[in-house]
Amino acid sequence: MNVVIVGTGYVGLVSGTCFAEMGMHVQCVDVDTAKIERLKKGEIPIYEPGLDDMVERNSDAGRLTFTTSLPDALTHADILFIAVGTPTSVDGSADLQYVLQVAKTIGEHLSQYCLVVDKSTVPVGTAKLVRQTIQAELDKRGVDISFDVASNPEFLKEGDAIKDFMTPDRVVVGVDSEKAKEVLSRLYRPFLLNNFRVIFMDVASAEMTKYAANAMLATRISFMNDIANLCDEVGADINMVRKGIGSDARIGSKFLYAGSGYGGSCFPKDVKALIKTGNEYGIPMKVLQAVESVNESQKTILFRKLQKYIPLDTLKGATVAVWGLSFKPNTDDMREAPSVVLIKALLGAGCKVKVYDPIAMEEAHKQLGDTVYYASDIYDAVKDAEALCLVTEWKEFRAPKWSLVRDAMKGNVIIDGRNIYDGKELREEGFVYEGIGVK
């Protein structure tokens, strides 16, 4: 099967590489000439564990190729995935200009049947717009070429995307024709030989499923952060609460961790887009409005907690260390990351900020420039610091030598934004410890 992936961002590159790994011929298309040239040389523009080796292996085998020409790629395409970006517009809606530009190009050059699949995260109704856009261009050409449009939303976790794609817990597919269903069944069958877990549904339901899934996970995070903040005031421990409610089979234990808010490329964008869609149809998403509000507030929690020990009027000139910059471990993605909110607040208060992250330092420099000090390791970051803020729970942060940290720091305040440390242990080491909703 000949597969074309339009867009070589996170979703497109992972998807195309994994399809190639299963023996399909895949062409990845992008308008960014520099990115395509880098990919041809084996240079990966994103960080995802194991992806570089897989790209190299399948490129060498000739199953994975890269091009800037969508018309050429269309010539032999059996199935084409649109995996371009859908950034948030000023009004909170998903910006579909790149999706519809791809659809227009397809209509201008389509010469034989092709199944066009929306892989990008798009609001309900996008498949109809894609179909209309393609058909309008075919009508202009005066040709009658059949095609189908389907929805196949991705559910990849950054840092674990290859495993998610190769052994998915489910594949959601929205189709409106038997031919489209048959093509997608053939495409995914090699991945699911042991347990065929493709869930077929109508296109609108598939589009909604993606948003609803991310909105539910975001809701659990904001709920737990709200409860954690209350725990701080009433003397309860959110970790004990999490165990208590997570043991209920109706609730489960996943995504019940308190912290400094969610970030990344999906949750913030998708929550905003679903709120916008609700408003457009006269159905206000009241729960999601609260979810978004709680999350924006939670991103400021570390700065607010820091002020309990170093008041705002004395923060000017103080040195604060920040461990972790990416929005989660195993990625360099800093989009909507809580670390950025914290660092900007610290800089605004006149602090000197020293940062360290195992992977995201280059990305951080793009966003923060030379406004912060980029440490060589965790101990360099805390040297002469009055306080340390842990933002991202990378494994190498979990068990540092606290004696070295204590000796390097000027102060002794530790603000744990992910509750990965034992407060009792750190207090015995001579630190002032503050977590999120923990004693």
How does this structure look, described?
The protein has 19 helices and 14 strands. The chain is an alpha/beta fold. It has three domains: 2-201, NAD(P)-binding Rossmann-like Domain (Rossmann fold, 3-Layer(aba) Sandwich); 211-298, N-(1-d-carboxylethyl)-l-norvaline Dehydrogenase, domain 2; 301-434, NAD(P)-binding Rossmann-like Domain (Rossmann fold). A six-stranded parallel beta sheet has the order 3-2-1-4-5-6, with helices on both faces. It has a six-stranded parallel beta sheet with strand order 11-10-9-12-13-14. The chain is elongated, with a radius of gyration of 24 Å. 45% of the residues are buried.
Share in helix: 40-55%
Number of strands: 14
What fraction of residues sit in β-strands? 5-15%
Uncertain stretches: none
CATH architecture of the largest domain: 3-Layer(aba) Sandwich
Mean of the pLDDT scores? 95
Indicate the CATH topology of the largest domain: Rossmann fold
CATH class category of the largest domain = Alpha Beta
According to CATH, the homologous superfamily of the largest domain is: NAD(P)-binding Rossmann-like Domain
Counted by DSSP, the helix tally is 19
Shape: elongated
Largest sheet: 6 strands, parallel
- Going by helix content, strand content and strand pairing, the class is alpha/beta
Give the termini separation: 57 Å
Strand order of the main beta sheet, please? 3-2-1-4-5-6
